[in-house]
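Can anyone check this?
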Amino acid sequence: MKTIRKLSSLLLACFLLAACCATAFAADAALDTELPVRVITLNGTTGFGMAGLIAAHEAGETALNYSFTVDTDASNVTAALVNGDCDIAALPTNAASALYNKTGGKVQVLALNTRGVLYLVTDGSVDVGSIADLAGQTVYAPAQNPSFIFAALCAKNGLELDIDTTYAQPAELNTAVAAGEVSLAVLPEPMVTVARSQNPDLKVALDLTEEWDKVFEPGSLVQGCVVVRTEFAADHPAEVAAFLKDYEASVALLSDDTAAAAKAIEETGIFAKAAVAEKAIPNCNVFFVTGEEMQTELSAFLEIMFEQAPQSIGGAVPADDFYCVLK
């Protein structure tokens, strides 16, 4: 990962404060500042909240001995967790649940970081004023999490339609949408912003988070989280708590100074263009929730997904020990 040579003064100021907090915690809890804390995040929205922390670390403004990797493939991230090559990672919530089930509880969720980021995009050839207007249509959606979520939403509304996952990756579907090859598509941000910049005829017909909240428990659509290896959390609770403080400050930067956050997103390799990231951030629903609220929201989502597509979460709703709630 390239070294960040320049950061905005506000970004530095924000993380000077975060570093002070981390240092104070280290003094009280005897942080091991030499311990390697290996963090992997996916690029795109799942990683947006990590960008400020990566930038702060590269600027020497963090107490913990982090190493960061940005990856494009969730399977690489889960493999690193299984192999013990990674301690903390940002992942889709369904992937976190599936990994917990696959490994017999060797990972736990630390925090939620992204609510719904899915939108229904249309080229205008189909008039969509409500989700009911999709009945009988073919809607393209990326495979895995987006298609499972959209299928659950359609089923809850009693809709019968064809969900086509020919374009398995969001970037592939984005290309098809921007080229006018697809009339109706479910896309995540920031791909929505990218597609609309390339094809001005596109419009957002439905915010699927709003549609979800109409028929499911409001706030239960949670698509992204941060997980930790269970063994690492048990052996290093002080360092995990310090990471959460650093990460919370990093997430806050997205709303406190969107331009600085977007710059960090580009410079850390989480997304290619700061200008697009800055425009997309308000629609990305990045947030930070831990503890009992985290468990309540995520367990509600996983129950819904289990009813719709049990394989999407690893075949079972995780037990309570899936949730790492620090005392």
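Reply from J.R.: I decoded it. Residues 1-28 have pLDDT under 50 and may be disordered.
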